[in-house]
Design goal:
The structure is a single chain. With 195 residues, the chain is an alpha/beta fold. It has a single domain, classed as NagB/RpiA/CoA transferase-like (Rossmann fold, 3-Layer(aba) Sandwich), CATH 3.40.50.10420. It contains 5 helices and 11 strands; from the N terminus they run αααβαβββββββαβββ. It comes from Sphingobium terrigena.
């Protein structure tokens, strides 16, 4: 059970991180923005070489746009998936997706593919985040969707994508929080000891 101090602390950190991200993205050169996150760095491409299913997400507003990696991943022979929010209790699964597929609206302004053949199990989960630190603790939106997915799929490689300005000195981690294995920003790939 979280105490109020941790909740307030994470809430404050989320707001600070969102404000910094919004300001940063608003000042980015349009060409730099369009080119960001279009190519996997070689160390990351090598790390996921044996993965079959890679889960991305559709970036909203000023989030780092993970969906831009879909074409390269498909060209590498990977099955690309997107999350589907199932309920307001933090449950989601992952559905196969091709970049030209039509998406259906979901809760919280999310969108997801048609269910098709049903959920797939990702070997790699590329997750959005609000903030991160060098210990690869992830500050999410607060709904626990990715925390639950990480716990349900402990063998999946956990990668966060963020703008570099989202780095924090320290992100509070609860006992149930699983750290990321890597964080990809527009300027570097940060690898942890688990990678």
């Amino acid at each position: 059970m979280r105490d109020n101090g941790d909740t307030i602390d994470k809430t404050s950190l989320r707001q600070i991180a969102r404000d910094r991200r919004r300001a940063f993205v608003s000042t980015l050169d349009p060409l730099a923005h369009r080119l960001a996150f279009k190519v996997l760095p070689s160390p990351l491409a090598r790390r996921i070489a044996d993965a079959q299913v890679v889960a991305l997400y559709m970036g909203l507003d000023d989030e780092a746009p993970a969906q831009r990696l879909a074409h390269q991943l498909s060209a590498m022979g990977k099955t690309v998936a997107l999350p589907r929010v199932l309920d307001r209790l933090g449950s989601m699964d992952f559905l196969r997706w091709q970049p030209d597929d039509i998406l259906l609206p979901g809760p919280f302004r999310t969108s997801h593919p048609e269910p098709g053949e049903g959920p797939v199990t990702p070997d790699v989960i590329i997750a959005p985040l609000v903030g991160f630190d060098r210990a690869l603790n992830r500050l999410g939106q607060g709904g626990g969707y990715y925390d639950r997915a990480f716990a349900r799929l402990p063998d999946a490689l956990r990668i966060g994508i963020a703008w570099s300005v989202q780095e924090q000195d320290a992100v509070p981690a609860d006992p149930w929080d699983l750290p990321l294995h890597m964080v990809l920003t527009e300027v570097e790939l940060i690898e942890g000891p688990l990678a």
